[in-house]
Amino acid sequence: MKAGFRPYNVLTLKQALEVAERSGYAIGSFSPRYTPMIAPVLRAAQQTLSPAIVQISHKELVRYGIAPQEFADEFYARVRGEDITVPVVLHLDHTKEMETIAAAIEAGFTSVMIDASEKPLAENIAISKMAADYAHKHGVSVEAELGMIGTTDFVETDKDEELYTNPQEARLFVAETGIDALAVSCGTAHGVYMVRQPKIDLARLKAIRALTNVHLVLHGGSGVPAEMMAGAIRLPGGGVSKVNIATDLELSFLAAIGREERMTNAECQALEPAMLERGRSAVQATVADKITRFLGSGGQASGFALAQ
């Protein structure tokens, strides 16, 4: 989908984060994981008058059986069909394959993430720069990762190793790659916190902010206490302006329909309508709660100058 045919309120990540960082709040980057969950994420954003990011990772596409075009088509159909007027972004999360990035951009994603964080610094820079150059040529924003963000469930990434972001390396990385947003490793992890407890190294975040002017992203937002997240968002000079939230959405959906095991997207679509609506209502409530009590983005849609 070419930019000129996008709804007026569908923005790039860079456009959205510039406003959020300037205004001192973070935008939630919500992973529906099942296409029927896209609508409740958008409904919650509209309900709370908040900007929002809808995202899915390469591993989620594979695990849940979704093609980038299918995900994008449902997103745009819901934006139009649900009369969504708040600013929204369609983002491809953790991706190592340029083919997936190309397919997502062709499908209408307005932001992509290249994750070469397991590579040596020089190789990570080279791969991230290549992805940034390609995406920017197509008018799409780019996020990359430096350091390694751990995981507990292997849904978004395939390693549980953790390596905190080095602030000096971050300065070089941002300057050399030309990325729009940087995912930093400073204590959070993907998935459910069970044995380990969430933490955020604010001193490290401050050092990264002092040495870079790029928008900062925190992955692993599910399960992090609100007061801890607030400290990361409100750092002097601009803190974290994008927070990824995935696991909490799926857990609320599964609990509402009385199920513990994940399912495929096709299985989700085949649920009995009343059961599906219960799950959707739970997801909408979870997203609205994150927006109002966790991110500080409620009511912030009015801060965007959207030209219709």
TrEMBL record:
- Which interval of the chain is the signal sequence? none
InterPro entries named in the record: Aldolase_TIM, Class_II_FBP_aldolase, FBA_II
The protein's superkingdom reads: Bacteria
Query: Per the entry, which co-factors are needed?
Result: Zn(2+)
NCBIfam families for this protein: cbbA
Q: What is this protein called?
A: Ketose-bisphosphate aldolase
- Output the lineage of the source organism: Bacteria, Bacillati, Bacillota, Bacilli, Bacillales
